[in-house]
């Protein structure tokens, strides 16, 4: 167990949110953003898509190392069966938020951890329902003017100013942020890395 605790941890993501969440766990890790293809089969279920993409991202980075635990993650927003990605511009962000306001949508976050040494992997996902409060066009435009929606799936960030748009959630908050922390700790533990021990 002690040997595994020294295994390098690599985050296959450029997301500041995921970086901050790993830092909050007290883990020592390096960033290595994935360049994996993120296209997917729209016939697949959201839970299948986020798991496939999370694994693909982790595998893309894992091939660059001889040892280590590589973490890959993918998050998507789904409203009435339709996937809402990152907005291309202010107009698309306005359209997304106009559809989300006053409705309940689901955020899926897929997670994969690959042990580079032997290729073994843990893959899973979490889903959380988000209830967004009714919003006027003026509120939506003011939020978009902050610039926060531009690189976020669904055009909002629950960990930022977007928090004031949300009425309540059903499920795991960190899944909405983009990294299901409890599931990650379970996966790391299966590979012999105890987050509580490392954080001391």
Q: Could you describe the 3D structure shown?
A:
With 200 residues, this protein is an alpha/beta fold. The protein has a single domain, classed as Maf protein. Helix content is 34%, strand content 24%. Helix 4 packs across helix 5. The two termini are 15 Å apart. One of its GO terms (biological process) is nucleotide metabolic process. Nucleoside triphosphate pyrophosphatase that hydrolyzes dTTP and UTP. May have a dual role in cell division arrest and in preventing the incorporation of modified nucleotides into cellular nucleic acids.
Task: Name the CATH class.
Answer: Alpha Beta
Give the radius of gyration: 17 Å
Low-confidence stretches: 1-5
- Average pLDDT works out at 93
H/E element sequence: HEHEHEEHEEHEHHH
The CATH topology comes to: Maf protein
Main structural class: alpha/beta
- The CATH architecture category equals Alpha-Beta Complex
Number of strands: 7
The number of distinct structural domains comes to: 1
Spatial shape: elongated
What distance lies between the first and last C-alpha atoms, to the nearest angstrom? 15 Å
Task: Give the fraction of residues assigned to helices.
Answer: 25-40%
SS strand fraction: 15-25%
Largest sheet: 7 strands, mixed
Question: How many alpha or pi helices?
Answer: 8
Cofactor: a divalent metal cation
Main location: cytoplasm
Keywords: Cytoplasm, Hydrolase, Nucleotide metabolism
Protein name: dTTP/UTP pyrophosphatase
